[in-house]
């Protein structure tokens, strides 16, 4: 699950509620990783054989990803429920749930 930045101020109890949520997911063994991402970053774009590297920040920063949580759950529905709980804690904004493919 990724989350996008917002201009809305965080709820007063954000850190307390988020710490409880992270602890719960950690104890349940479903939280694999979580973290924030720098707002600027570097964009690497390819077109044919041309590779372009552009330093941020970018004008469309609201489209960038501000943070992520990597969870291992049994179903898409379970991942969506965790995302609902996360949004209830952090308030208005947008998160995206995507499946990770790999070994």
From TrEMBL:
Domain YCII-related, which positions?
A: 4-87
* InterPro entries the UniProt entry points to: Dimeric_a/b-barrel (IPR011008), YCII (IPR005545)
Q: Which domain of life is it from?
A: Bacteria
Q: What Pfam family is a match for this entry?
A: YCII
* Family label: Belongs to the YciI family.
Q: What is this protein called?
A: YCII-related domain-containing protein
Species for this entry: Allokutzneria albata
